[in-house]
Design a protein that fits this description.
The complex is a heterodimer of chains A (419) and B (188).
Chain A lengths: L2 H19 L2 H16 L28 H11 L10 H17 L28 H9 L2 H11 L3 H24 L1 H7 L4 H11 L16 H25 L11 H4 L9 H26 L10 H5 L2 E2 L2 E2 L1 H24 L7 H31 L4 H25 L8
Helix pairs in contact in A: 2-12, 2-14, 3-12, 4-6, 4-12, 6-7, 7-10, 7-15, 8-10, 8-15, 10-12, 10-15, 12-14, 15-16
Chain B lengths: L12 H5 L1 H19 L37 E3 L14 H5 L5 E7 L11 E9 L8 H5 L5 E3 L14 E2 L1 H8 L14
Antiparallel strand pairs in B: 1-4, 2-3, 3-5
Classes of the chains: A mainly alpha (419), B alpha+beta (188).
Chain lengths: 419, 188
C-alpha cells in the first residue's frame, strides 16, 4: 500500500462522511420540522439565519430558517450534561456513541457516485470501501446499533427507558429477518453483492423498479424484467417498511413512544448525549434511504442510458462526472427522506403486538414466498428450463402461498365477544 | 344495568390490507401541504394568515386590527373632554383588585383649582403590571368611569420598576374618553 492510496482513502472518509452525509442529518431535521409544519397548516422554523443586525447590518438574513439546526446544536451543547446518580455510568456513557457509530460506519460501502479522475492519476471511486459483501456488511454493522439503544435502556436503571430498550431489541431483531430475506430477490437479480457494481448494472440495464432501458446483451429481456417488477416491488415494500422499523421511525417508533414511555430509552439523557441519540436516529434514516435508493432506484445513476455520457464528462482533464452523480444520489436520498417524513406525519403508531405480528406473520412469510417467486421469474427469463419445470414451480408456489395463508389464518386466535 | 354485547366490526379484505387507508392518508396530508403552500388552508383568510398555513407571523403581522371590541388589555386612567382627570380616588378599584396590583395615594384638590368641587384626586396612582391579571374588575367597579382596560397588550420592561405604571404613564396610555359621567361639569 502506498502513501497516495491511504491519503485518498482518508480524504474519501472525511469528505463523504463529514462533508456529505453528516450535514444531511441536521438538514433532515430541518426538513422534518418544516414539512411537518406545512402538513399541519403551520409555518415552522423560518427565522434563524445570520443575525447581521448584531454586527450593525440593516437586515437579518434568514435563509428560510436553514440555520435553525445550528442553533439547536448550540443549545444542546450548552445545556447541562446531567448524569443521574442511579445509572450504570460506563454503559450510560457508551450507549449514545454506540447508536451513532454504526450508522456512520455503514456509509463506507455505499457508492456515492461514479469515478472521478484527476489528470495523470488513477480514477477514484466515490465509495470508501469497495467490498464484495456490501449489503451483508450493512446489515451486520447496522444491527449493532441495537446495542446502543438496549444499553441506554438498561443502564438508565429506570423503568420507562428499560421498557423502551426491551421493545427496541425485540423489534430490531424481528425486523432484521424480514430485512435480510426481502433483499434476496434483489441479489438474485443482480447476482452480485458489491453495491457499486449493483449500481453500475442498474445504470446500464435499468433501475430495479424502472427497468426501461438497456435490454439484452448479458441482461434479461424486457418482458422478464417487467415480470420481475412484481417480486421487486414486493421486496421494495417489505424492505422499506422494515427499514422504518429498524430506524425506529414513526409508525414503529415504539421504543420511544412518548404517550406510553415518557421518552423511551433516552428518558434519562440530556444535552449532547441526547443529541447523539437523535443524530443516530437520523443518520440511520439517511443510511436507510441511501440503501433503498442504491438497491431499488439505481443509486447515483440518472437513468435512460445517460450515465455513460455523464461519467465521461470532463473539464480540462478533470473527469468530474462523478460529482454530478453524487448530486443525483443526494437528491434521490433527500427525496426519500422527505418520504420518510411524510409517512411519519401520516401513519399513526402501531400497537406493539400488531408490530410483532406484522413482522413475524406477514413480512417473514411474504418475503419467503417472494424469494420463490423471484427465482421462478429469473429462471423463466434465463431460458435454461423447460416450461414443464417452470409450470411445476408455479404450482408449488401457489400451493405454498395458499398453505402459508391458511396457517396464518388458523393460527390467529378467535376473539370472542364478552358474554 | 343492561348488558350490551359488542362484536368487533368485520373488516373487509381491503381494510385488512391497510394500504388503501395509507394512500388515503398520504393524499390527505399532501392536500394539506399543498394547500398551506398555496395559502389556501381552511381558515387562512379568517386568521389573516401570513401566506403559509394559517399562522400569523408575529412581529411583522399583529392582531391589532383584528382585536375584538371586548378585548381587555392594559388598565389605564382617562381624562374627560375638558381635560379633567376623572378619577376621584375613591379607592374602590384598589380594594376590589384581586391581585392587589393597584396602589392609590389620594390627595385633595386645592380650592383655587377650577375643579375644586370634585374635592379629591389621586396624588399617586400605580398599577403594577407584573401583578395585574387583566380581569377588568377595576373598570367594572369604578363609579366615575375613570379606569378603562384599553387594547394595549405589549406591556414589557427590563426591570420591575419599569413594569409599574405610574399616574403619568396611565394617563398617557388612556387618553381622553368622552361621554357618560359629566356630573362635575359647570353645565349641570
Amino acid at each position: 500500500m502506498d502513501f497516495a492510496l491511504i491519503l485518498t482513502i482518508l480524504i474519501k472518509i472525511i469528505t463523504l462522511t463529514f462533508v456529505v452525509v453528516l450535514p444531511l442529518v441536521p438538514v433532515s431535521v430541518y426538513f422534518e420540522r418544516r414539512f411537518s409544519a406545512i402538513i399541519q397548516d403551520r409555518v415552522g422554523p423560518n427565522r434563524v439565519g445570520i443575525p447581521l443586525t448584531l454586527f450593525g447590518g440593516k437586515k437579518d438574513f434568514s435563509f428560510f430558517g436553514l440555520v435553525q439546526p445550528v442553533a439547536d446544536g448550540i443549545k444542546l451543547f450548552l445545556k447541562e450534561d446531567f448524569t443521574p446518580a442511579h445509572v450504570r455510568k460506563a454503559f450510560y456513557w457508551m450507549a449514545p456513541a454506540l447508536t451513532v457509530a454504526p450508522a456512520l460506519i455503514t456509509l463506507c460501502v455505499i457508492p456515492f457516485g461514479s469515478d472521478i479522475q484527476l489528470p495523470g492519476m488513477d480514477p477514484v471511486k466515490l465509495v470508501i470501501a469497495d467490498i464484495n459483501v456490501g449489503p451483508l456488511f450493512i446489515f451486520a454493522v447496522a444491527s449493532l446499533s441495537v446495542y446502543g439503544i438496549t444499553l441506554a435502556g438498561w443502564s438508565s436503571n429506570s423503568k420507562f427507558p428499560f421498557i423502551g430498550g426491551v421493545r427496541s431489541t425485540a423489534q430490531m431483531i424481528s425486523y432484521e429477518i424480514a430485512l435480510g430475506l426481502s433483499i434476496i430477490p434483489v441479489l438474485l437479480y443482480f447476482g452480485e453483492l458489491n453495491l457499486s457494481k449493483i449500481v453500475q448494472y442498474q445504470a446500464e440495464h435499468g433501475w430495479l423498479l424502472l427497468p426501461l432501458w438497456g435490454h439484452g446483451e448479458g441482461a434479461l429481456s424486457l418482458t422478464s424484467k417487467l415480470l420481475f417488477w412484481i417480486p421487486a416491488f414486493i421486496s421494495f415494500l417489505i424492505f422499506t417498511i422494515s427499514i422504518f422499523a429498524e430506524t425506529n421511525r414513526m409508525p414503529f417508533d415504539l421504543p420511544e413512544c412518548e404517550t406510553e414511555l415518557v421518552g423511551g430509552y433516552h428518558t434519562e439523557y440530556s444535552s449532547m448525549k441526547f443529541a447523539m441519540f437523535f443524530m443516530g436516529e437520523y443518520a440511520a434514516m439517511v443510511v436507510g434511504s441511501a440503501l433503498i435508493v442504491t438497491l431499488f432506484f439505481g443509486g447515483w445513476s440518472v437513468g435512460f442510458g445517460a450515465d455513460a455520457a455523464i461519467a465521461g464528462f470532463a473539464i480540462g482533464g478533470f473527469k468530474i462526472g462523478g460529482l454530478v452523480h453524487l448530486g443525483v444520489f443526494l437528491a434521490k436520498v433527500i427525496a426519500f427522506i422527505l418520504f420518510f417524513i411524510l409517512v411519519r406525519w401520516t401513519v399513526p403508531r402501531f400497537r406493539y403486538d400488531q408490530l410483532m405480528k406484522l413482522g413475524w406473520v406477514i413480512f417473514f412469510e411474504a418475503a419467503l414466498i417472494n424469494v420463490f417467486l423471484a427465482a421462478l421469474v429469473i429462471a423463466s427469463g434465463s431460458g435454461k428450463f423447460t416450461p414443464l419445470i417452470l409450470g411445476i414451480g408455479g404450482v408449488l408456489l401457489v400451493i405454498t402461498t395458499a398453505a402459508i395463508i391458511y396457517v396464518a389464518k388458523v393460527s390467529e386466535p378467535k376473539v370472542k365477544a364478552l358474554a | 344495568m343492561a348488558i350490551v354485547k359488542l362484536t368487533r366490526p368485520k373488516l373487509s379484505v381491503g381494510e385488512k390490507i391497510y394500504f388503501g387507508a395509507l394512500l388515503k392518508g398520504f393524499f390527505l396530508t399532501m392536500k394539506h401541504a399543498v394547500a398551506s403552500l398555496r395559502n389556501k388552508s381552511r381558515g387562512a383568510k379568517d386568521m389573516a394568515s401570513s401566506g403559509l398555513g394559517v399562522t400569523m407571523q408575529y412581529p411583522e403581522q399583529r392582531w391589532d386590527d383584528h382585536m375584538p371590541e371586548h378585548y381587555r388589555g392594559a388598565p389605564t386612567l382617562v381624562t374627560d373632554e375638558q381635560g379633567r382627570e376623572r378619577c376621584v380616588s375613591c379607592q374602590l378599584c384598589e380594594f376590589i383588585c384581586p391581585p392587589k396590583a393597584i396602589k392609590i395615594i389620594p390627595g385633595e384638590i386645592p380650592s383655587d383649582d377650577p375643579w375644586a368641587k370634585v374635592e379629591k384626586r389621586p396624588k399617586e396612582f400605580d398599577i403594577d403590571m407584573i401583578r395585574c391579571i387583566y380581569c377588568g374588575m377595576c373598570e367594572e367597579v369604578c363609579p366615575e368611569q375613570a379606569i378603562y382596560l384599553r387594547k394595549d397588550y405589549l406591556i414589557s420592561g427590563l426591570t420591575r420598576a419599569e413594569m409599574v405604571h405610574d399616574k403619568k404613564k396611565l394617563y398617557e396610555i388612556g387618553g381622553v374618553r368622552v361621554g357618560l359621567v359629566n356630573k362635575w361639569n359647570e353645565i349641570k
